[in-house]
Amino acid sequence: MDDQGRAYLGQIIIKWWLLYKAVMEREERLLTISEVSKRLNIPKHTLGFREKEFTGLFAPQRTQEDQRRFNDEHIAVLMKIKAMKEMGMGLSEIKRVLGNGRMNTPQEISPIDLLAHRLADLVRGKL
To answer: The CATH number of the domain where 90 resides is what?
Structure first.
């Protein structure tokens, strides 16, 4: 990744951090797919696709009417996916980076991706 790519990644990480912080400061409550779609500027059908594509990373709760309900953790995962897509990463690369919420093999991941993941862990309070 060149310097311009690293700078762009840094901007994406800062953007993600600010969004995540804003979400985490709000009172914990479950959001509908429409609310999440508006908040993250992601179409509803894309949210459904992300749920299927990233099975195991997040699974929104379902109401008796089978409607999705997202919590702050789900939103944080969606923000990470969105930020990586904006960086130009493909779904397979995103899956490799986020695999089960942890990096799989650090040798295969660039240092900047490792930094982004560690920042995310700090935000979630894992480190």
So the answer is: 1.10.1660.10
